[in-house]
């Protein structure tokens, strides 16, 4: 059976469970269920702390896992990022009280609090900066208020937590993170992991695209299909009225209304959008 590690709590947990469910896998019925066997798909899911997932995958104890890219890099293990999953997006950034540091070079000799010491030590080493890294479990923004550190390096999503502590980011983001599917780099059940990857890709695609149908005067079909090229090529079917054709194509969900407006202006009619429930491309 394929062993897959998934986050049991925190920011990535709910979205992961929802995505697995959409991909046709069994998910836990209540938060205290730590191992879920899905015999139909020959998969066993291990609900683990997001931070530990990369470690399990890196050691080969489980075949694949879902975690954040930042957590994967912090763990510094031998694991490969197979695909991004489209949720849990964040940046990882340095921050301090306004006026204390103008640039990342000014971190030299200062104390940096973080719950991602692996990531921060590597970033500082890459830049040739020597600083004292203080490892904390969470709520690192408070470390400055309490005088434990001069600078923090932490996950920033909306920036609300930083603002509430009177802190400001500086320098470019160390990293852009999101939830990712990872696997170890040892030989394993490649085919079963491929199935998981394809299923998750199917969910991602179904969420990113919608199906667009419309009727179009035959002489306008070239111009219309330029607006809706589809993935391979749009389906163009004859209609009873020979002056018209029906067109069907996948279009990005984002921007679909603009495409519908453009098609209408061009002369297309009966323009319909439908959600895609699942797909394999
Ligand atoms: N607003 C956010 N806050 C925290 N993590 C976020 C946020 N948005 C996305 N993430 C991502 O979620 C992952 C961290 O998850 P989580 O916060 O659950 O871990 P944790 O801090 O170790 O757990 P917990 O906070 O429950 O102790 C990282 O990959 C991070 O980039
Ligand atoms: O930019 P924001 O939208 O404010 O989000 C970022 C904050 O959220 C996370 O904290 P979390 O809730 O995971 O608590 P923790 O620090 O204890 O892990 C992260 O560590 C930041 O503190
Ligand atoms: Mg957290």
UniProtKB/TrEMBL annotation:
Species of origin? Intrasporangium chromatireducens Q5-1
The activity regulation comment is: Feedback inhibited by histidine.
| Name of the encoding gene | hisG
Give the GO biological process terms. Answer: L-histidine biosynthetic process
Which reaction(s) does the protein catalyse, per the Swiss-Prot or TrEMBL entry? 1-(5-phospho-beta-D-ribosyl)-ATP + diphosphate = 5-phospho-alpha-D-ribose 1-diphosphate + ATP
- Pfam families given for it? HisG (PF01634), HisG_C (PF08029)
Where is the ATP phosphoribosyltransferase catalytic domain positioned along the sequence?
49-186
What metabolic or biological pathway is this protein involved in?
Amino-acid biosynthesis; L-histidine biosynthesis; L-histidine from 5-phospho-alpha-D-ribose 1-diphosphate: step 1/9
Could you tell me the EC number(s) of this protein?
2.4.2.17
Q: Which cofactor does it need?
A: Mg(2+)
Protein name per the record: ATP phosphoribosyltransferase
* CDD domains in the cross-refs: PBP2_HisGL1
Q: Which GO terms describe its molecular function?
A: ATP binding; ATP phosphoribosyltransferase activity; magnesium ion binding
Q: Which InterPro entries match?
A: ATP-PRT_HisG_long, ATP_PRibTrfase_cat, ATP_PRibTrfase_CS, ATP_PRibTrfase_HisG, HisG_C, N-reg_PII-like_a/b, N-reg_PII/ATP_PRibTrfase_C
Ranges for domain Histidine biosynthesis HisG C-terminal? 206-277
Please name the HAMAP family in this protein's record: HisG_Long
